[in-house]
Specification:
By secondary structure, this protein is α/β, with parallel strands linked by helices. It is built from 10 helices and 9 strands.
Length: 256
């Protein structure tokens, strides 16, 4: 594992990628602070670990996020890794989706990242070390039918993360934005509760451990983007060179 620090903060730590990564870090001896609205889920993540701490918080509240990072630094010490795993993923046709839902997806997936970055990074940049990891998605690179809100939020995450890296590339910090395909977590089951686009469901599904391993490799190599999975890099290339074929495949899969 690339991480050798002492204190990590994980958003979305009550389930899925956040839960898996938090338990892995805690198992290696690091202290971990979870941020999530899912209090019960965080309790499950922390079960069996005295070095996992929890804070129930809505990451769309910038003031609350800023305050909790102040408290973490005061109570637990210097944060040297931040993992932005919090996300929501409802699917559906854009014109049929309640705009409150569409805006909430952007507020959590993109706005939450911006809130965490501006709260966590200043002291990390002052110290000149640490890891900052954000979660985008293959849908942020390859948009598809019925995924409009989620894909748009993840495209925003990618642009934000790329600019953030370049603005701070000589700071001593390591930045990585991971863009996985479908991952076997409760987030994907959240999508299944609405509607499942046929095209991404036909692709590969990774385990959380596979995603984590690829991010750790990218951090070690100084790469700002992680594209885990056998199909992912090919998908990035196809989107760049043959966008029309990508859209044709999506229309053929959905039948409209």
């Amino acid at each position: 594992m690339a991480y050798t620090g002492r204190l990590a903060v994980v958003t979305g730590g009550g389930s899925g990628m956040g839960q898996a990564w938090a338990r892995r870090l805690a198992g290696s001896g690091a202290s971990v602070v979870l941020l999530d609205v899912n209090t019960e889920g965080m309790a499950a993540t922390a079960s069996g670990f005295e070095n996992i701490h929890t804070e129930t918080i809505d990451i769309t509240d910038s003031d609350a996020v800023r305050q909790v990072f102040r408290e973490i630094e005061a109570n637990h010490g210097a944060v040297d890794r931040v993992i932005n795993a919090a996300a929501i993923m409802p699917f559906g046709r854009l014109v049929d989706e309640d705009p409150k839902v569409t805006n909430k997806v952007m507020s959590v997936n993109y706005g939450g990242l911006a809130n965490v970055a501006t709260a966590a990074l200043p002291p990390m940049l002052e110290r000149g070390y640490g890891d900052f990891i954000s979660f985008s998605s293959m849908t942020g690179i390859i948009p598809g039918l019925l995924m409009g809100a989620y894909a748009s939020s993840k495209a925003a995450v990618q642009h934000y993360s790329e600019i953030l890296y370049h603005e701070n590339r000589d700071s001593g910090l390591r930045f990585c934005c991971v863009c996985p395909p479908a991952v076997a977590t409760p987030l994907w089951r959240q999508a299944e509760a609405t509607i499942v686009p046929k095209l991404p469901s036909k692709g590969e599904t990774l385990t959380p451990d596979e995603v984590i391993a690829d991010v750790e490799r990218c951090l070690e190599a100084g790469k700002p983007f992680s594209y885990p999975g056998k199909q992912t890099k090919f998908g990035v290339l196809m989107r760049r060179l043959f966008p029309g074929l990508i859209w044709k495949a999506s229309h053929d899969a959905e039948g409209f």
